[in-house]
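Most newcomers find our protein records easier to grasp once they have seen one. A learned vocabulary of local backbone shapes supplies the integers on the structure line. An example says more than a description, so a record of this kind follows:
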Amino acid sequence: MQENEWIIQGIDKTLLSNLKEQTKLPETVLKVLINRGFKDVESVEEFVFPKKEILFNPFLFKDMHKSVVRIHQAIENQEKILIYADRDVDGITALSVLYNTIITLGGKVCWYIPSDEGYGLSCNVLDKYSDEGIKLIITVDCGISAVKEIDYANNLGIEVIVTDHHEPPQDGLPKAYCIVNPKINTDVYPFSDLAGCGVSFKVSQALMQTYGKYFDKKIAVIAIENGKCFFITLVNNIIVGEQEFMIESLSQINLYEYSKIISNDIEIFKNIENVKIEKITGDKKDNIKDFAYEILKQYRKFEFENDGRMLEFFENNVDLVALGTVADIVPLINENRTLVQSGLEILNKNFSNRLGLSYIFEEYLKNKPINAKSISWNIAPIINAAGRLGKANMAANLILADDKYNANNFFVELKQLNNERKELQVENIRQFKILLQEQCDVEKDNILVVYAKNLKHGVTGIVASHIVKLYSKPVILFIEDQNTLEATGACRSIEGFDIVLALDKTKDLLVKFGGHHQAAGLTIKIDKLDEFRKRIKQIAKESISSEMVSNKIIVDCELKITEVSKKTYNDLNLLEPFGASNAVPIFLLKNVSFEEVTIMGLNQEHLKFKVCKDGISVPAVFWGAAKYIDMLGYKDRFDILFNIDMNREKVQLIILDIKII
């Protein structure tokens, strides 16, 4: 068994005691949160109980206003709009949210997802839609690296609005009509880790607001107390001005410039005609400015809860955002956590509203709860199967289906594609493992670059992820494209090594590339492959330390065996949804023994046994550990790392690592 380093964190007992008293949350939950950086009541409660009304304003994106005004214009003029999407779950849900919004608003819209021509915009596709009269394209989950293609679109007289969340190119952005991407450094949007569907949701939300009564109108929030007044000016819920003065100075302000006035005291404004005046009260603060901002906070909460049109938009789309966000493995913190938590709540209440998805949920979950884990393990791979095998249109049609007959037909086809994907995945893993041993020095190379011929595309990213887990090193896998002199690759990286930045240093050798810090795609001419391998290995050698490739497991906290219970499992559900940047908690249990160690699984690759201590035993499984059966069968004592799970209403441990003591 490969030796892993366990990072066991201590607990600040004083902090734990204080938070427990103030929040009344379970101790185990608080231990996990403290060791993940939460140190005060406010941050703990915001994480555990995220509020929908504090989601960030979409107009905080620098180009958002320009984007939605142009889309609004296209809808009003009945211009046909093309949505150009990526082919994974994130891209398909991003497409679905924007498509449904534009249709709801009466627009004319069509969509396109690449298949054989590869990721992103294609000049051939642009020619086709230009011939059909398209003058506005909106990309979703792609486009930020399409510098040449967007130049080509501009020459065709097509305006392109890029909505994306991938890393921008180092040497300049495409010359699009406008760009909405939280990863652009010059943007002021407060959260940079939205998924593509999250960005599409924000664009759709802002577009809906362009049809609201107060779009582009000035609104005043005014706090009045003891003769003082603090005045906040809003446009599209963005603060554009503030000032403090004595109350008699209000007469010097042209209040008729404002379409709405919100204040704790509306008596003073009653003589103003044709201006909507609302009374909002908040908890009084020590100074007038804080009081004004408290009124603003309460106003925003009131607006969110009482704007039926926008609430309907939220509830009709946030389930798709949850699906795409989880599937794209973006951090489930901050705004993503709120969106996913809200979307999962809606899906669990009534997923039958999504006719196509309902077939998937019924077939593959069989009435089990829909959570981040079930989406990652059971749902996303099925939807992604279509895109991986060049038929993403089928998955999009499934999600957009509005009658049961069509939805069922798409589902039957998707099931077949998923079976093909599974077979392809097994075969490509087998082949790449053989080629890796032939082409790489597994011990010395800091990055593993493997090239294959005569393999089918579609699952290269999955295979790369599998190999990263085996070797704890970045991996780049190439498959030769048939009938061309190019190879297409997938990259998966490790914490601390930015694979997109590394690719950027070799861009003179690449046809194209793009992605995230930890995952990317690329295309290369085959005659450039040897030089690429040489240079990327040197970059990895200079950038990756032995510390980065060591196997470390960060332990959230130690438990007693009496704490391994259904109650603890239920308490930990407060931390859901689990995923990137909010992993399922890992616990340490010391000085245990194992009993009834047996092999299980279709291919006899897993172990099950009982973990015993102080007369208490708990069932456990250790995935992929059948080869260690002799070692675990000894009458030794062990320390174990594990997750807590449930199996048929009984607590079960998922063993992650063991050490003989």
